[in-house]
Design a protein that fits this description.
Layout lengths: L1 H13 L3 H9 L3 H9 L6 H14 L3 H9 L4 H9 L2 H21 L7
Length: 113
């Protein structure tokens, strides 16, 4: 647990740099792990808070916001929607529709637009 706390603390410090935000987000599974930590009941509360703050910093990059939304963290996504950036809105609507389609397909439910 100590190693996780230190790793999240380091990521938090690195995530303060917008350039490094893109690099952190491009690491396979990094955002997924951070999102998972924020909803974990077994994590240390300070580690969860650092993971949340790290994700907030990573949200400076649109690709990271997309990954967060795909992994169930919608706060940054909803903020972008409310700001009304049209290309982002279209992108996320397509992501949501794709997820709905796959879910319906899995349950053998017709998906009609």
């Amino acid at each position: 647990m100590k190693e996780r706390k230190e790793a999240v603390s380091l990521l938090f410090e690195l995530s303060k740099s917008e350039t490094l935000c893109e690099k952190i987000g491009s690491i396979n599974g990094a955002i997924l792990i951070l999102v998972g930590m924020t909803s974990s009941k077994s994590e240390n509360l300070l580690t969860v808070e650092k993971a949340n703050r790290t994700l907030d910093n990573l949200a400076k990059c649109e690709n990271n916001v997309r990954q967060m939304a795909e992994n169930g963290r919608l706060q940054s996504f909803l903020t972008l929607l409310l700001e009304g950036i049209s290309t982002i809105i279209i992108s996320y609507v397509l992501i949501c529709l794709q997820k709905m389609y796959l879910f319906c397909k899995k349950l053998n439910i017709s998906f009609i637009l």
